[in-house]
Design goal:
40% strand; 8-stranded antiparallel beta barrel; Lipocalin; Pectate Lyase C-like; mainly beta; 11% helix; 2 domains
């Protein structure tokens, strides 16, 4: 139920919300079909390679006819199947160029470009690369910070690749220009079969660092940093195959990302570094394998078995205000209401009510078939205010940790002067 609820929320949010901006530089669609049409059988996930790249495809080396580019226009014009494009050092704002094209005559421009399309998103336009098998785009320098590709709109992916099999990206930094709330991924992969990312720095605050939909075969990442994304480093919907990460850093994001129905998907991490919250989702999967990885506070691998599970008992007297409270925590998933029967034993019962907070400041309280709506806003760093639409009554929202149980979920209290309602975070 919770996965379906998240998917519904995300779809609704993406269509209506106006948000505020993404992140800046620090250091060096549509689908082609369903997985049933792809005819790809997931590879054997038994023995993993001892060294990065063993028994793995490697990034293609540029040939003599490689195209070198030093501006956005030339980069876009060079995109075609089997193209090998080398990006010279510099800052490349994709949005500035494609917005000018859009304002001039995007319909004509799109008609004359077989492999790239400019399309409108909620707060601007984005670039989509289509049906480019064998495309290879790399930075000229060994330092990926030397060539940076950015997007301005908060709903735009920096680059979307649709139907681009055997895609290779390397030696590039990619991200959004301003800090704030975003819904565009950094790299969006749709219906792509076999993708390699090497020596990359992907930063948010796009909702997801790398998002895959209807992809298959494999994703191979080596020496890739994914940082500062509002909902996590990785996202997956209706994709399968092997995702392998070698010497990668997944740090400073606000959650673990999204994984919808994913049979036939396996994840492998070797010599990788994880931040405090990047492992909240995919590290609980039975098909995730790790080797020689480093973990940030407050997590300690491999003791993940019970984190986020429905609590066996709840002692509200043990709860303390959480430092994790922000709009992302409120909106990441649903909240399930409960009431305490005995605070000494921790016995509790569920009420059947659910609360959902949406990033646009709206929300709903599902109560046994009745859906009550409300608005909400942060009133401090540690609390929010809910205003019910039906009668304009206001309630304070606070979030708590259970300091005596590191595996317990987060708890939320909604209260006014005379009443309080308790919820726990349904992971």
């Amino acid at each position: 139920m919770k996965k379906k609820a998240i998917a519904v929320m995300m779809g609704a949010i993406l269509s209506v919300v106006a948000l505020s901006g993404c992140n800046g530089k620090e250091t060096a669609g549509s689908s082609r079909g369903t997985l049933g049409d792809a005819g790809v059988t997931p590879a054997d996930t038994g023995t993993e390679p001892e060294q990065p790249g063993e028994d793995e495809p490697t990034p293609a080396q540029p040939a003599d006819n490689t195209v070198y580019v030093d501006n956005v226009a030339d980069l876009i014009e060079a995109i075609q199947p089997n193209a090998k494009i080398v990006v010279k050092p510099g800052d490349y704002n994709l949005s500035e160029y494609i917005q000018d094209v859009w304002d001039t005559d995007a319909m004509v421009w799109n008609k004359h470009h077989d492999y790239v399309e400019i399309r409108e998103v909620y707060d601007g336009v984005e670039l989509v690369v289509r049906d480019c098998e064998g495309l290879n785009i790399r930075g000229e320098s060994d330092n990926c910070a030397d060539a940076e590709l950015v997007a301005d709109p908060r709903y735009a992916a920096v680059m979307t690749f649709d139907g681009c099999d055997k895609l290779v990206l390397s030696g590039l930094t990619m991200g959004h220009t301003n800090r704030g709330d975003c819904w565009g991924s950094v790299i969006e992969l749709v219906s792509c079969d076999s993708v390699i990312l090497d020596n990359m720095d992907l930063y948010g605050c796009g909702v997801i660092g790398i998002n895959l939909e209807y992809c298959s075969n494999f994703l191979r990442c080596s020496d890739v940093t994914i940082r500062e994304c509002s909902q996590g480093p990785l996202g997956c919907a209706n994709s399968r195959g092997e995702w392998k990460f070698y010497n990668c850093k997944l740090v400073d994001s606000l959650s673990g990302g999204f994984f919808s129905e994913t049979p036939g998907l396996s994840l492998y991490f070797e010599d990788c570094t994880f931040g405090d919250r990047e492992t909240e989702n995919f590290m609980f999967r039975d098909d995730t394998t790790v080797k020689n990885c480093t973990w940030g506070d407050p997590y300690s691998y491999p003791d993940y078995s019970s984190y986020g599970s429905i609590p066996a008992e709840i002692h509200t007297s043990d709860l303390t205000a959480s430092s994790l409270f922000d709009e992302y925590t409120l909106t990441y998933t649903g909240w399930r209401e409960f009431y305490v029967l005995d605070d000494v034993t921790g016995e509790y019962d569920e009420t059947g009510r659910w609360a959902y907070f949406y990033i646009d400041g709206s929300g709903s309280l599902y109560d046994n078939g009745t859906d009550l709506t409300f608005t909400w806003k942060m009133d401090s760093d540690s609390s929010a205010v809910v205003t019910m639409d039906k009668d304009s009554s206001q309630y304070e929202v606070t979030i708590y940790n259970d300091d005596n149980d590191q595996n317990a979920p987060l708890y939320m209290k909604i209260s006014d002067n005379s009443n309080e309602w308790w919820f726990f975070w349904d992971m």
